[in-house]
Amino acid sequence: MSARPWTPRLRRASGPLYAAIADAIAADITRGKLRAGERLPTHRELAEAVGASVGTVTRAYAEAERRGLVRGQVGSGTFVRDLTDPASYSPMLDRSRIDLGPTAAPIVAGDLGHCALAAALAGLAARADLGALAGYQAHGGSEAQRAAGARWLATTGVDADPDEITVCSGAQHATVLALAALASPAGVLVEELTYPGALAAAGWLRLPTHPVALDEHGLVPDALARACRDSGAKVLYCTPTHHNPTAAVMPKERRLAIVDICREHGVSIVENGALAPLVAAPPPPLAALAPERTYHLSSLSKATIPALRVGFLRAPAAARRALEVAAAATVWSGSPLLAEIAAQWITDGTAAAIRDARRAEAAARQQVAAARLGRWQVRSHPTAYFLWLELPPQRRALELVEQAHARDLLIGPSHVFAARPGNAPNAVRVSLGAARSRAELDRGLTILAELLDTPAWSALQ
């Protein structure tokens, strides 16, 4: 028996019918009634179902495609887009738009990072051993680079021996290496809202993901214990410090409870610490509380400049060989030039100086956000690069994203971060870092506040 074709639930307001159909598509994607890749009815089928002309449906599908909700394929039909892909909610990005969508390192006045990079490149060009830095290197990094990585991790409370460090091409590469080394058919436990890169890595490795409930402090211990029992998964991926997308910092007592549960169920931990350098004096990382089972990843991209694609993965010493094999299988070896700059910056204090400047800029931008969005339900941290905006019931996240896009403003809907997009909360993540200045950020947040104060376009419930 074939599945019943999708029919929009229309509650027409004063606008045209084609817009109401597009609104219905948006609402049912938000509710999970329409899923990525699903084929929508033909123009004629939908026209008959809603009592409209074929031309009206054609215009409705064109409007939905303009909003980034669907894609048309000549000869095959119209399909729901995969909205877990960040590119799908920022179509036609150009410099005229205000970008509050992706996580990006804030721009600092005078841009200390770019000035330091220019000096570092000039210094490399003058070095007598430049030829050696132009070749391949050890899969997991040189001894000096691993020692620098250990020093960098120490700034966030991770006590690591250089022999426990694998140098990676950024935190995303470290995520892939860790999950590949720990992979099992039972899959990975993840926070119900998590970094999209982790979901992409698990999907690429064909590992099922099992969402675990969150509260304002991070992972809920009882929910984790239940997920461990129900799924049989032996790997947990989580971000206890500066959680993405909610910016939560898990308190020490909660971390101890999470560690106890993982020990009880024999679960290894992949701890994302890429954003931890932005938090001054955070609670001890899981790698410090359970070093025997924690794979802790960090990088310099978020704390210094995105171009410095160098990451560090601290793992139990026994895992080093497996991680080097995984590194060889993925990138063979990272860029010696970038790794050399990273090691130099960590050693001479440049990385810490840029981190501090970016932390200060993030704090200033959070103050701008508080002034514009303070009366709304916002979750954040004083030095976070973004905030989590929970919407009132009468507003729908995807509608707000569409309204913002119409005003040349990009924001991130919650389903991009949801392990189960159909169950995403009614919220958006607002990046404060990608705007080119505080003044541009203020303009973007002013537009967002105006939209929040404006009645929704659709009366769909």
Automatic annotation (TrEMBL):
InterPro entries: Aminotransferase_I/II_large, HTH_trans_reg/aminotransferase, PyrdxlP-dep_Trfase, PyrdxlP-dep_Trfase_major, Tscrpt_reg_HTH_GntR, WH-like_DNA-bd_sf, WH_DNA-bd_sf. SMART domains: HTH_GNTR. GO terms for molecular function: transaminase activity. Keywords: Aminotransferase, DNA-binding, Pyridoxal phosphate, Transcription, Transcription regulation, Transferase. Residues 15-83 form the HTH gntR-type domain. PROSITE patterns: HTH_GNTR. In the C-terminal section; belongs to the class-I pyridoxal-phosphate-dependent aminotransferase family. This is PLP-dependent aminotransferase family protein. It comes from Nannocystis punicea. The lineage of its organism: Bacteria, Pseudomonadati, Myxococcota, Polyangia, Nannocystales.
